[in-house]
Amino acid sequence: MSHFRCVAKHPTISLVGSSCTSLRQINQVHTQLLITGLLDDPFLHAQFVASIALKHPNLLDYSTRALDQNPNPTVFAFNSLIRAHSKSPNPQKSFQLYNRLLKSGHDPYPDNYTFTFLVRTCAQLLDFEASRAVHACVMKRGFETDPHVQSGLIYMYAEMGLLGCARKVFDGITQPDLVTLTAMVTACAKSGHVGFARGLFDSMPEKDPVAWNAMISGYAQCGQSREALDMFNLMQMEGVRINEVTLVSVLSACSHLGALDQGRWAHAYIGRKKITVTVTLGTALIDMYAKCGDVNKAMEIFWGMREKNVYTWSSAMGGLAMNGLGHECLELFALMKQERVLPNEVTFVSILRGCSVAGLVEEGRMHFYLMRKEFRLEPLFEHYGCMVDLYGRVGRLNEALDFINKMPVKPHAGAWGALLNACRIHKNTKLAELASRKIVELESKNHGAYVLLSNIYADSKNWDRVSNVRQMMKAKGVRKLPGCSIIEVNGEVHEFVVRDKSHPRYGEIEAKLEEISKKVKSSGYVANTFPVLFDLEEEEKEDALCQHSERIAIAFGLISLKEGVPIRIVKNLRVCWDCHAVTAIISDIYNREIIVRDRNRFHHYKDGACSCKGYW
Question: Could you give the angle at the alpha carbon of 32 between the alpha carbons of 28 and 36, nearest 5°?
């Protein structure tokens, strides 16, 4: 059915797809076609229907009425409408058209394109029963061996999270072609099975950009960002065409790693290749710069974008909040409302975080109320967690607990975790015990709850309770996640874990660590060793702190980066109090800006101070 691609070849009909931009102009062309009798020709009638449906998706009702004007519409006309509806806000109308096609009582019957588009409809609807019915019709009509239908079925099942069904379709294909292999790679990568996807990818004799993009996206979504960037580098070496989809995934990987140099390279590549900065790509750039700590560049891109959607605004606001600029976040929200952009759930997460970092409790409470009252948005778990954090940051722990107890849904570990962290800051041991117990009830293997409670006991020198927590962790098989810090130097990502000595330049790193330790001590700082295991001698405790992953990364940054270049680090855990204080001192001693992104927020250290203002 190659004629399906020939959508509008008649000169008059071609105007619908090229020159006509309004309903009035389409009406004029339609009138001309009726007067000349051209629409009596079934094929030309099908071209006209297809031109409206595919080139003007907002006029689907018009194209459906045009279909009714011919007593015997072709399968091409039906397929065009089914295809258009499969991409529309009401994809279920595709099934109504399919039923009309079956009842039309003339040849040809549904073809491979019909089922390709019906499968796409099922993927859009995520309707398992409809998917089974369409798959059965595919087999009944004998199209189960068509490559496009097969790849569509694989995609459909993958979208519904049914990778087993997708694998079953794939395993039934004796000689999968490029289209089918690419669909399976995409399905596995999207479902998180990147190992299997990579095996398939490597076995492909030829690979199109879709397969490359699927692998890069799959790695990025699974948190394997270094592998995503490695794949991107390989893609360039192979000379594969890079497009917007590729760059969005690459920027996501850079965001996760805090790889600012590689993110800047991707941004420069966009400029060099004159790739259009769409809303999606622009939003990805904002997110990358914000998560790499360069919020000024993020906002420069934001203000330079001609078109912005709710995700663009939300990303910019989230970046401001993440970098401690809560007031600016709220100012941007006020401007967003002036522009009449309706906020969504993501927007309010950014707003509440902005209120939290700025200590604006009343403003946070007001926005939480307006979220439901004015914008008809139901709060999600993340919003409740933000509210608990909002109360906790300013020490209003009883109000935080009262808020948790009055939640209309069962409190989740995130809400209790926010309370536990507030208890750590404000040294409320009794409430910390309650929060920790609640977290463990919900997530018995949550190592963070045990570690935080242990540290709270250690701060109050309650060594018996510290020992009890440690013993409880051993008994339940809970292991503390090792600290890991990432730093980018000259476009290369270096990863360090606690007590890591595997780096080829570790000798230099160790010497710099000793130098840092001496200078910090000379400044009069006394290490806070309470959170370290108490069965060590005091000197051993200090040595243990010096081996924390962020300290190793900072030492590497000092020996590797030119003077004046900020040291940027991403850590998988929350920065401990001692490392937090020592990093501020290092920034002053070495006259160096140090930016650390931990699992909770950004810390911008400069001249001996931190942007968090004591709340880390």
Answer: 170
pLDDT 10s digits, 1-59? 444 444 445 666 666 666 566 777 777 777 777 888 777 777 888 888 888 888 888 88
Backbone φ and ψ for 232, nearest 5 degrees, come out as -65, -40
Joined tokens for residue 435: 């929060």
Q: How far apart are CA 601 and CA 358, in angstroms?
A: 13
| Bond preceding residue 11 cis, omega within 30 of 0 | no
Name, of 170-174, 529-533, 586-590, the range with top average pLDDT.
586-590
Q: What is the pLDDT of residues 277-303, one digit of tens each?
A: 999 999 999 999 999 999 999 999 999
Structure tokens of 119? Answer: 């499968």
User: What residues form DSSP beta bridges with 489?
Assistant: 492
Q: Enter the tokens of residue 512.
A: 């710099």
Q: How far apart are CA 4 and CA 559, in angstroms?
A: 62
Cβ partners under 8 Å of residue 377, min gap 6: 343, 344, 345, 348, 371
Q: Which residues pair with 494 in a beta bridge?
A: 487
Cβ-based neighbours of 168, under 8 Å, separated by 6 or more: none
**Helix locations, 5-127, DSSP H:** 11-18, 23-36, 42-55, 60-68, 75-86, 93-103, 112-125
Q: In Å, how far from its chain's centre is CA 346?
A: 12
Q: Which residues contact 559 (CB under 8 A, 6 or more apart)?
A: 505, 508, 509, 512
In one letter, which amino acid is 236? Q
CA 199 to chain centre: 25
What crossing angle do the helices spanning 42-55 and 23-36 adopt, rounded to 10°? 180
Q: What six digits make up the tokens of 357? A: 């970092």
